[in-house]
Amino acid sequence: MRYRLALTTTRAVNATSRRLGRGQGTVAGGRAGLKVDPQLLRRLTAGRRVALISGTNGKTTTTRLLAVALGAHGDDVVSNETGSNMPPGHVAALVANRRAKRAVLEVDEIYLPRVLAATGADMVLLLNLSRDQLDRTNEVRMVANRWRAALAAAPHTAVIANADDPLVVWAAGAAAQVSWVGAGLSWHLDAAGCPSCEGRITFADDGTGEWHCESGCGFTRPPVTATLLLTDHGSTHHGLWADGRSYEIALNLPGRFNRANALMVAVAAETVGIDAADALAAMGQIEEVAGRFATRVLGGVPTRLMLAKNPAGWSELLDLVAQDRGPLVVSINARTADGADPSWLWDVPFERLAGRPVVATGDRCADLSVRLHYADVTHLVESDPLTAVHTAATMGVDATPVDVTTVDVTTVDVIGNYTAFGELLGARP
Q1: Which of 260, 356, 357, 378 has the fewest CB atoms within 10 Å, measured from its CB?
Q2: Is 119's pLDDT higher than 70?
Q3: Which of 88, 106, 103, 108 shows the shortest CA–CA distance to 37?
Q4: Alpha-carbon span 70 to 75, nearest angstrom
């Protein structure tokens, strides 16, 4: 009786939320349903094959990739694809599709132990761990230790883990079944200390991804099932399996980091009997994920939207946009969803933007401007994001406005954190 009432409550509240324009109906109903039946998540996943994806960066995109890969042979897959990654979001997604026998759920790092215990997941993908919103979440070493304890208590769960992140290796090392993937780790600053003995981690600089603890405690990068390789001419990525197989990883989504996550998904797909080539072909059809890398026309300006929320994520995206010299808008807010403390800006390597026309915007555009100044990035400041996009489209290479009639309005790249990204994604054209 309680279970049926919880289902009805979840559906009703979500429908009301959408009708009143209060949201997408992906959280409120789940929260209400869990109040009626605290065991609702466990009941909704009973009898389903559940895969969980967690990590600091890339969860939403990887969740979408895995859902598509696991559906490559026609299976119905339910997923929380909008990024509502705590139990209320999981419940809302599962209630919306009770027929699907497979569930692919993005999970907030803090909630992974709880969700794993509730769902008894068949599979967990662990992407990375780095600092993120420390004013309201735990230090990453604490998160790794909690993951480790949760995985040790789940002997029937298959784990696919990034072998290049020492904190992920520490967490996944307690699991009974692990497939290690050389997915890469460009941000090393949060993994410099050995979680095993408190020594120092040394990372090889030869591109192999190898690392080890200097103290000799034996904590080192494990042998991998597959690794991501860049071709000699530097334009395509391949996944190389330990048994000698090689597959090109061709995505419509840009960036090395997306290809790395696709490789992890391909390995995960093989653990449930789906051929890696079929999984990669399915992933190659995805154009965008929850607005990430989407191109929208804002105020007449074609605009590519990208989300970055912490130093590691910003570092990856700055590498991506550094290949272009077109106009760029960087937008920073510090609202509840973003984390109230923007001091992490000083860890972001904005120096990579030197020589590119940049506009700083968002609630904390003044803080961002100071950081760009010390990075020797010539820029303009415009507090309104839509105006900032138009300004960027009509500025010269020296960051000075030019006559709009004398320039072609090219695509403007925008990188913003959570609420800054969300504002522009939902803005009227």
Answers
A1: 378
A2: yes
A3: 88
A4: 7
Q: What's residue 225's pLDDT?
A: 95
Q: How many whole angstroms from its chain centre is CA 176?
A: 26
Average pLDDT over residues 119-133: 93
Tell me how far apart the alpha carbons of residues 103 and 302 are, in angstroms, rounded to a whole number: 35
DSSP 205-249: SSSS--EEETT-SS-BPPP-SEEEEE-TTSS-EEEEETTS-EEEE
In 3D, which of 299, 306, 313 has the Cα closest to residue 382?
299
Taking the alpha carbons of 168, 169, 172, 174 in that order, is the dihedral positive or negative? Answer: negative
Q: pLDDT at residue 401 above 70?
A: no
| Of 65-69, 94-98, 294-298, 391-395, highest mean pLDDT | 65-69
Q: What is the DSSP string of 269-334?
A: HHHTT--HHHHHHHHTT---BTTBT-EEEETTEEEEEEE--SHHHHHHHHHHHTT--S-EEEE---
- For residues 397 and 378, give the distance between their C-alpha atoms in angstroms, rounded to a whole number: 9
Instruction: Say how far apart CA 411 and CA 52 lie, in whole Å.
Output: 35
Between 96 and 181, the higher pLDDT residue: 181
Q: Which has the closest alpha carbon to 398: 379, 413, 381, 412? A: 379
Identify whether the C-beta of residue 51 lies closer than 8 Å to the C-beta of residue 63: no
Q: pTM score > 0.85 for this model? A: yes
3-state SS assignment for residue 46: coil
Radius of gyration of the chain (CA): 22
Compute the mean pLDDT over every residue in the chain, rounded to the nearest whole number: 90
Q: What is the pLDDT of residue 266?
A: 97
Give me the residue label for tokens 């790395």: 260
Q: How far is 356 from 359, CA to CA, in rounded Å? A: 10
How much is the pLDDT for 403?
46
Backbone conformation region of residue 396, classed left if phi is above 0, alpha if psi is from -120 to 50, else beta: beta
What percent of the chain has pLDDT above 90? 72
Q: What is the spatial distance between Cα 382 and Cα 384, in angstroms, rounded to a whole number?
A: 6
Q: What is the pLDDT, as a whole number, of residue 407?
A: 46
What is residue 70's three-state secondary structure? helix
Pairwise CA distance, residues 253 & 255, whole Å: 7
400, pLDDT greater than 60: no
Whose tokens are 């939902």? That residue is: 426
Task: Name which of 309, 319, 308, 332 is nearest 388 in CA terms.
Answer: 332
